[in-house]
Each structure stands twice: as structure tokens, then as C-alpha cells.
Design goal:
The structure is a homotrimer of 459-residue chains.
Chain A: H1 2-36, H2 42-69, E1 72-73, E2 77-78, H3 94-111, H4 120-141, H5 162-180, E3 187-188, E4 191-192, H6 200-239, H7 259-286, H8 291-305, H9 314-337, H10 346-364, H11 367-374, H12 390-419, H13 427-432, H14 434-438
Antiparallel strand pairs in A: 1-2, 3-4
Helix pairs in contact in A: 1-2, 1-3, 1-6, 2-3, 2-4, 3-4, 3-5, 4-5, 4-12, 5-10, 5-12, 6-7, 6-8, 7-8, 7-9, 8-9, 8-10, 9-10, 10-12
Membrane topology (chains A, B, C): Multi-pass membrane protein
Family (chains A, B, C): Belongs to the ammonia transporter channel (TC 1.A.11.2) family.
Keywords (chains A, B, C): Ammonia transport, Membrane, Transmembrane, Transmembrane helix, Transport
């Protein structure tokens, strides 16, 4: 094993660098959320997101990383590596995996902005970072999990977290937004009223920050797969007793180029097609060229591509983008119709698109790419894969499993918080702004503001 | 070839990481442009820049990358690799090259801000990203292009895009700014009136964002050269039939240290000398220490260094910086005198400095560095290069060729757009602000603004 | 030596990338300082910080890098590599080390914001970047320095700049803030009055920017140590005449995982524990959940970890975090009691925490990690190190030496500037705002501002 570790050192070195870039996602989330929020809640948003990062660090160090990547107990949960002090294998480094937990938690808290109690966030983070996400990520990524061990001929594919990050975070956020209820003034007399963000520049630049971080997220993950493949190959050559299927490598040329380049191309294409399509459709419909739709459909595309970008061709990435546009536009409309107030439309962007991107792999995964990165010889239905439908079945099962797991705990924890009266701030605080009530004053004390009031309740 | 690819894998891995950093240039461009714009056009700027990125992705995937780096047809244009699905060689990865196209396009759109029609941008981006830039970059960088094949003893040098990116983007922007015409109120009764940006903090931080991205741009490009040299060396050792001149490697010590470190040093020195010199001169002249001059002269220095930073010594980098300060100050004054309204002074920063930096190589390129990165034994006039003037001639020719190529299409497309009445927004929209007219409302709905009006036409 | 250089090329390649990330610290410092400042001084802050970067480049190129990493003269100062044109060894690349100088200088100027003369900054930067920091960093990091040569059995440990960067910058800032005196209105009739920053969002996002850059700072430094160890090992295998102690490598398993991952984990844990502890204590005390305390205690934790994160276990990182919270809260209170006005609390965050983090290593450094990264077999007192107290003595000595060295020149230069009447702007300028007086107008010309006045002197 020592020689393997030495040989693969570059993979973990690359992951350190990619991990730093992934950390930038947090800057993106906070810029986005601040921008879409109202000026009276800026400090609150900054504070809760920062505290989430800090808390996640302690939780991921103590238990999350172990539950996620430790040696599997019954295929359900990892049980080694608590209070981490050294990496759990060649490429499963703490720093890189911590950033995935951070992203999951940030998605949840985005859905709850501007009316949730400050006490609720750390509790939700604790549940998510110590339990819900680690177990989901164990199922999705740990070789010995029940989900990855279901078949010898194929495996559930979740490239960089369509299920383990986006379904998990987005669904908990959706449950939360529903149970917490809409911000005052968002829905009145059965009608939705837009609450425009106070600084769209911060939101749009935050979207680009997220894209930057996402390159670390998806491209970096390529090296996790390559590192695992190299480790398996080295182990085979030594003792020939390998747990991974020793399928022959794909024919030369079939997978030309650096796989991380394919990943970058695919995520870029999907995001671009998704955003441009949604922008075009919405502009034709409304006559307004809407920056928010451009940004959110872009993020929808990035989420769509996350479970898939290493496993599909660029043409499939275009299909993903078209699907992303449709799901985003439809989902956003559905949210409004259901009177769910999700200030960043995070639940659509993350939950709906994470689900769709994962399931679509059952149709579009290219066998040569799957083999290159996982060693399994299987692919999507359009490739007429030998056992048509096996991968699709696994994909559906995986998403349903993660969603069911997440849903149960989400309902439980939000219901408990509401019962305890700790979920939502009181009406006075919400109207006056969380910054004035809880955080010692406004975020922009020198600016003359005209607070946005669109609800009769605010007068 | 397979063994070569394997051996050089680290180069493309490094380029993925550098590519992510280069992507940050887009954050820089957008911060800069938002900051220098007026509050009434913020959403428009954010939207057009984001759409440019998205559109470039589709164009670069479908044709741009192939025209640029595909197998050369007649030395004029690449014709393989359409709808890219795998890298065109060891270091010509799609992701990295796409970011260069993005930069070129962003430069153009900066010159047109605050009065150009929203329809014009995608059309301009299409022309630039699918045709003008790919062909220019084919000439400048593809080994088999007519420009690089002119001489057996030397070649046109454009380290990271002085001609292919900055001359190309800056000249199209200059043509555009001239044909679109100045913003209302910029020139009145023969006098220029400053239109101050609404958020200088965003502009100055955007400048630092750009610098960060530029380290990826220039340092990363070092690995493209090193990767190409390693590939050529490996090919030689195998079949001894090499297209690149097999000049002896430079003597040990002559090129000490990591070449990417030299690149970082040189670009930093040039930017620093340029900015400090311009700031000092302008402060002595006007009595005001002007942040905009500091930032723009810094960018001028970065542009100057882009074609050169791998090929020159640090002393030459200082000379570059002094030249950059002079060109920036003189060019900015000339723009005003010619009544060209370029809100970010992009045409000076990019076109003039890109030209100067490329041509100056004919004097200052150090032979040992040229040999290290390209295999050619030639250098600038101050080194008394064997064939004095050959490199200088190639540099002038290269810049003139790229400028002529770009100029023709720039005039054509802007002229066509103006004839079609699609180039500029109407006066009412310009005065009311693009955000209110086209994008559904202001970017900062809660802030009490005092819109800047400096033109009588605005009253 | 050539083969060593070739073999270690990846280390310097990684440092180029980490160096770019460290550069982002400058974006962080400027965002932080702008956010905590008042709107009337925004341009001034942006300008002085940018000029500092530019000036540092010229100084570090010409002399700083040579004084710091050149061949040692008498163990006191380096004297080779002036006007750098090639790296001083395998991992001591110019670009990476320049960024450390930038950080040191930025710390100083943060303490002086909003009332210091524009002429003073370049002079201070000159003294710091050409003399004070290079010598301190020579002592702390250059193998042949008097400090590192004191003992054959152990050496002073300063992982990534607790003494050479944070003590050095923080102490000069503290001396400066004291001699410059408080901003008008900060202390009146013996009472401290808060001067809230004009844009807390910029400050908090700046804190996250800093954290991002800090990953480059600390994780990157790991490769400096690994590169030095690899060079030493290669030299030993060649000529067996090695200056570094050839202690046996630590037992396999004792140092499992990528050391850069340990670094990332430790700095994250310390920052998290520090910030959450300080936030909890202060919230219980005041009833307000204060974003500024959250951010500054986070930075305090990052500083604490800087000298230590490669050498300690994760449990020790938690202890570091607890200590960081206490030192930050106590130090901030002490500053106010002493009527020192440090707008960013930089002197506490950097000087006090840098000192504590360095000295604590004498107790908590883990021998196996010290051996892994330096080749020395020694550790902190809690490990019952063979020569208990030797390391602790060296740590105290190192910090005292750097502090004494810095203190002397700090007092001299600030005293000289004050005598020359060049240290502080006049009262009219300070009240009217530096932007209006020196920089041609306000930073946000379209925003309706209500300048913050909290001093009777301002009326």
C-alpha cells in the first residue's frame, strides 16, 4: 500500500488545490443570498452562513467524515476515522470532502432566509452535517455501501453529488421553506408579490463566484475517480485480489483527452444551454430580460451537470441543459403556485435539478466514460447497454433512497423546531429586520435606505 | 504518442487548475464594468457579460476551438475538432482555451457599455468567438500556421495573447466605441465631461480580481509551452522526425528556476512600474491621486506583459512597465481628444498596450528564454541576435496581420448593425437607464439614489 | 543538483498555483478594510492598499527576496539574489515569497486606516518590505540563520509565518496605531465610541476571501517543507554530506495522509473553535450576536494556526482555537482600554495571536510531524520531548527576537514620520474625508449618504 500512496500523491495534492477553489462556493452562496435578501437582514445572512461553515468544520472533523468515508458497517454508515487525524485513503481527504458538506448545508439555509430564527440554523446544520448528508454520501460514494454493491455489472452513478449534495440539501431546504412558511408580504390575498433583492450586483457576481467554485467541485472530483482507479490497478498488479471489477480498460481513443477537461466542458455547456434557453423563453413571454432568471437557470444547469459531467458526451450535456431550463422554469412556477417562499429558488435549482440530472444518467451515461472512471462496463439506455434499464433502475433507486432518507429527517427536525417555537422569528423582528433586532444595527449605516415594503402587513 | 500523453498528463492537470483561475477574469471584468458604470445600467452590464460567457461556451464548443486549434488548413484556419469531445493534443485543452476566448469577448463589450442595444452583444460575440478570435489565435499559436511557419530560424512570439487576445479584443472594442458613439453627456460643446462610476470600490476590487485571474492566464500558459516542448522532445527521441527545430537546449543556469515563476515576476513588475509611474506623473500634474489611473495603468501593465512575460528578463519587464505608463497616459488622452467614449479605457489598455508589448519583444526577447519555451534560437535586437531584425519584423507583421484581420470584420459588423438600427438604444432608454426600461427595475431598489446627470441632454 | 531540481519541479509548480491563491489575501484585506471604514475614505483605502502591492513588487524584486532567502551572511541576512532573475533554490520561488511580504505589509496599513497621510504608507512599506520583514523571515526560515542554527537537536518552528508575518506586521501596526493616534471621535471624554463600518457585507465577505487565500498560504507552505526535505534526501543519497540532520523518518502510519490535508484541517478547526467560542461568550454577555466578533475571532484563529498547523494534531488545533478566542476577546478589550484605535483590531488578531500561536508550539508540537517536515526529532512539552523545554525556549526566543527587531524599527520610522509632520492628515481632511480632499470626490457619487459622525469634534 505504501507504494500506492506514494504513486498517487499527486492526486491528493491536486485535491487540496481544488478544495480551496471549492471553498469559494461559500463566498458565492453568501453573495447570492445577501444580494437577493433585503437590506434589513444582511448581517443576519452573513452571520448564519459563516457560523454554518464553522460548525460544519467541527462536526465534519468529529463524526461527519467518519460516517461518510469510514470503513462501512453493513453498507449503511462509516464507522472509522472519528476525530479525523489523517486521511482515510489516498483521495478521500478531509479538506475536499468537508467542502461538499459545506455546500449541502448552505443550500438548506438559503431556502430559509429572512424569517428563520437564529437558533434554528445551528441545529439544522448539526443534523445535516453530522447525520443526513454523511449517510447519504456514504451510500452514494463509498465502495462498500449497500447502494454501490447492489449489482456486479453496474453501479449507481453520482459524479460529484447530484444526490448526495443537491437532492439532500435541496429537499431539506424545500421541506424547511414549506414548514417555516413564507415571508410576510410574499403571498397576499392569494397572490404572489415579488420581493426584489436589495443588491442584484452582489447576487449576479455571487453566481459567477459559484461557477468558479463549481469548477473545483466537478473537475476536482475527476481526480477522486482517477485516484481510486489507480489505487485499484496498483492493488491488482500486486496481489491480484481486487474488490473492484477488473473490466478491461476502454479502447484507446474512446476517451481521448484529460477527463477533467471533459468535465469542465460538459458543466459549462449544460449551464450555458440551460440559462440561454430559459432566458430566451422568459423574455419572449414577458418582454423583460430578467437577470435573476439568467443566473438561476445557470445554476440549475450546473446542478444538472453535477451528477453527470464525467460520464456523458458533450451532446448529452446540451440535452441536459435543455432539460435544466424546462425544469427550472416549471419548478419556479410550481413553487409560487404552491405558495412556498424560497427566496433563492434553491429547492428548484438544487432538489429538482439534482434529481433530474441523476436520473437522466440512466439514459445518457456513456459506457466508455463510466468504465474509465469506475471500472464498470455499463451505460445509459440510448447506448443500448447490454442490460438495458439496469443503470436507470439504480439511478432511480439511488435518488429515491437519498430523498426518502433526507425527507424523513427533514420533516422531523423542522416539525420539532416548530413545536418548540424555535423555528421562526416573531413578526415584529421580521418587519423591523433581523439586523436591527439581533445584530446591533444595520449593515449599511451610512446609506440612506428606502426599505422595501410590499406587504400590507408591513404598514 | 500514447506514452507522450501519459508523461505529460500533469501539464493538462495544471491547466485545469489554472483555467479555473483564469475564469475569475470574468468576475473581474464584470466588477470593473459595473463599478465604472452608472447605477441605472447595472443589471444590463451584469446580464450582457453573463450572456457573453454562456454564448461563448456554445460557440467555442461547436466551432471556435476547432478553428483555433484544429489541424491547420493552409495555415489559415483549423478544421478538426468541431463539437469538441476530447482534447486536441496534450496541452490544448478546451477549458483553458475557452477562457482566452472569454477574455477577448469581454474586452469588446466593455467598450460599448451603457448605450449599446442588448441585441447587438450576442451578435458581436458570435462574430468574435466563432470567427475573428479563433482565426487570429490559430495564426498566433498553432505550429502549422502561415505566421509561425514563415521562418525556420525564428517565429512570431505571443506568449499568452498580446495579439490574439488583447489586440483582437481591444481593436474591435475601439472600432465599436467609435461607431456606436459616445454616451449622452460625455462630450458637450466640444468638451469632455467625466462620467464617474457609481461604485469605485467594485471597480478597484475588480482590478485585483483581474490580476488574480491573470496569474492563471500567464503562469498557466507557461505549461502549454513546456508541455509542447516535452511532447516534441519525446517525439524526437522516438522517431527523430520532428517538425520543431531541434536546437540544443540552453546552457544550464541560463534559465534558472521555474519558468512560471519568471512569468509571475515579470507580469508583476511590469504592472507595478506601469501603475506607479502613471500615478506619480498624473498626481504631479493634477494634484489628485487618482484611483482610476492607478487601476487602469496597472491593467495596462498586465496587458503589456502578456505577450512577453515568459521571454524577457526582469529588467526588460521594468522597461515594459515604463512604456506601459506612457502608452496608457498618452492613449487615454488621445481617446478623449478624438471624442471616443470608452467607459473603461479598454481600447487603450488592451489594443494599444497589446500592440506595444508584442512589438517590443523584437527588441527585448531573451534568446535563452525563447529557446527554453519554443525551441527556436532567436531573440530581440538588444541581444544582437544573429539575424538582427528578423524577430522584430515577425512581431510587427504578426500584430499588423491580426489587427488588419480584426479591423476588417469589426468595421463590417458594426457598420451592418448600425445600418440595421440594432446597434444603439434610443435616447429615452439611455436617459432613463437600461435597467428600468429592459430589465424590470433598478439594481438597488432599496437605496436612495441621486442619479448622476452631467449632460444638458439629460435635463 | 540538476536531478534534484528536475525531480522537485512539481513542488514549485504547486507553489505557483498556491501563490495565486495567496494573492487573493490582498483582495480580502482590501474588502475588509473598505467595509470597516467609512464611506468618505473608501478610495483612499483602495488606493493605498493597491500602491502597497505595487511597491512591494519592486522592493521584493530588488532587495527583499535577496535579504530574505539569499545565501546567509553571518546568519543575519541574505546577500545573494538581488534584482531576482531566477529562483533561489527549488521551492523558494519569488512569486510565493512575495505574497508573504504583501500580507505583512497589508497588516500594518490596516491599523492606520482613515487618518494617516498618503505619503506615510509608501515609506512604511519600503521599510517593512525591504528591511524589517526580509530579515525576520531570514531568521525564521533560512536554514543557515542564527536562529535555526542554535541547536543541533531542535529548531525554531514557524510553519507559515506566525512570527515572520503576523508578529512582524501586527507589531508594526500596533506601534503605528499608537503613535498616529485615534481617529477623531473614537475616544471622547475618556469613553470609546464605536465607529461602525459603512459596508459590513464587504467586511464579512472579505473575511471569507481571506480564508480562501489562507488555504493557499498554509497548505502551499507544506510543499515548501516537503520540497526542502526531498532536496535534502536527494543530496544525501548523492554525496552523503548533508547539512540538515539526517534523522530517521518517522514510523509509517504516524503521519498518515497528505500533510497539506492536515494543515487544512487544523487551520479550519482552530478558526472555527475560536470564532464560535468568542461569538458564544460575547453573545451571552451582550445579548447581541455580533458579526464583527465572529469575523475577527475567525481571523484570530487563522493567525493562531499559521505558525503551527503543520506541526500539531487536530486536538491541539482545538486548544489553539480556545486560546485564540480568549486572546482575541481580551486583546480587543485591552486595546480599547489603552485608547489605541485600530479600526480592524489587526494588532490583536495578528500580533497577539501570532505570538501565542508560535509560543504554544513549545507545548503542543507533535514530534512525528516536526520530523516529517523538518527532519528534526523534537517536539512540545506535552509529548515529554527528550529535552523538555528546548523547543519552548527556542519558540520564545524566536518570537522575542522578531518582536524586538520589528519594534525598534517601527518606533524609529513612525517617530521620524511624526517629527517630519508627514504621519497624519490634518483635521479638516480627516473630517471631510480623504476621498473628497485627495482623491477627486466620493467613491459612491450616486448614493445618498448620511455620513457617520460620532464625535463632537465632527460637528
Amino acid at each position: 500500500m505504501d507504494s500506492v500512496a506514494a504513486q498517487n500523491a499527486p492526486f491528493s495534492d491536486l485535491l487540496i488545490l481544488h478544495g480551496a477553489i471549492v471553498f469559494f462556493l461559500q463566498v458565492g452562496f453568501v453573495s447570492l443570498e445577501v444580494g437577493y435578501g433585503r437590506s434589513k437582514n444582511v448581517k443576519n445572512i452573513l452571520l448564519k452562513n459563516t457560523v454554518n461553515i464553522l460548525l460544519c468544520a467541527i462536526v465534519w472533523w468529529s463524526v461527519g467524515y467518519a460516517f461518510s468515508f469510514g470503513v462501512s458497517t453493513g453498507g449503511f454508515i462509516g464507522t472509522s476515522g472519528f476525530f479525523h487525524d489523517g486521511s482515510l485513503g489516498v483521495v478521500k481527504i478531509w479538506f475536499y470532502s468537508w467542502n461538499f458538506c459545506l455546500a449541502t448545508v448552505a443550500i438548506v439555509s438559503g431556502c430559509l432566509a429572512e424569517r428563520t430564527s437564529l437558533v434554528a440554523y445551528p441545529l439544522l446544520t448539526l443534523v445535516m452535517a453530522s447525520w443526513v448528508h454523511p449517510v447519504a454520501s456514504h451510500w452514494a460514494w463509498q465502495r462498500d455501501s449497500w447502494l454501490l454493491g447492489l449489482s456486479d455489472e453496474c453501479r449507481f452513478l453520482d459524479f460529484a453529488g447530484g444526490a448526495a449534495v443537491h437532492v439532500c440539501g435541496g429537499l431539506m431546504g424545500l421541506v424547511g421553506a414549506t414548514i417555516v412558511g413564507p415571508r410576510i408580504g410574499r403571498f397576499e390575498e392569494g397572490r404572489a408579490k415579488d420581493i426584489p433583492g436589495h443588491d442584484v450586483s452582489s447576487a449576479a457576481i455571487g453566481t459567477l463566484f459559484l461557477w468558479f467554485g463549481w469548477f473545483g467541485f466537478n473537475c476536482g472530483t475527476t481526480y477522486v475517480y482517477l485516484g481510486n482507479m489507480a489505487t485499484a490497478a496498483a492493488a491488482t498488479s500486486v496481489d491480484d485480489g481486487l474488490s473492484a471489477p477488473s473490466s478491461p480498460p476502454p479502447p484507446a481513443g474512446a476517451t481521448g483527452g484529460n477527463p477533467a477537461d471533459r468535465v469542465a466542458l460538459n458543466m459549462t455547456l449544460t449551464a450555458s444551454v440551460s440559462s440561454l434557453t430559459a432566458l430566451l423563453l422568459s423574455s419572449l413571454h414577458s418582454g423583460t430580460v430578467d437577470l435573476v432568471i439568467c443566473c438561476n437557470a445557470l445554476l440549475a444547469g450546473l446542478v444538472m451537470s453535477t451528477p453527470a459531467c464525467g460520464f456523458i458526451t458533450s451532446w448529452a450535456a446540451v440535452v441536459y441543459g435543455l432539460a435544466g431550463a424546462g425544469i427550472y422554469l416549471g419548478g419556479a412556477r410550481l413553487l409560487v403556485r404552491m405558495h412556498v417562499d424560497d427566496p433563492l429558488e434553491s429547492s428548484v435549482v438544487h432538489f429538482a435539478c439534482g434529481t433530474a440530472g441523476t436520473v437522466l444518467l440512466g439514459f445518457l451515461a456513456r459506457p466508455a466514460y463510466v468504465a474509465q472512471l469506475t471500472g464498470y462496463n455499463c451505460g445509459g439506455l440510448v447506448y443500448g447497454a447490454r442490460k438495458g434499464g439496469l443503470l436507470l433502475g439504480l439511478q432511480v433507486l439511488g435518488v429515491v433512497a437519498v430523498a426518502a432518507w433526507t425527507g424523513v429527517f427533514s420533516v422531523l427536525v423542522f416539525w420539532a423546531l416548530r413545536r418548540a417555537g424555535r423555528l421562526r422569528v416573531d413578526q415584529v423582528t421580521e418587519l423591523a429586520g433581523l439586523d436591527n433586532m439581533d445584530h446591533g444595527g444595520p449593515a449599511y449605516p451610512e446609506f440612506n435606505l428606502v426599505p422595501y415594503n410590499n406587504g400590507s402587513g408591513e404598514r
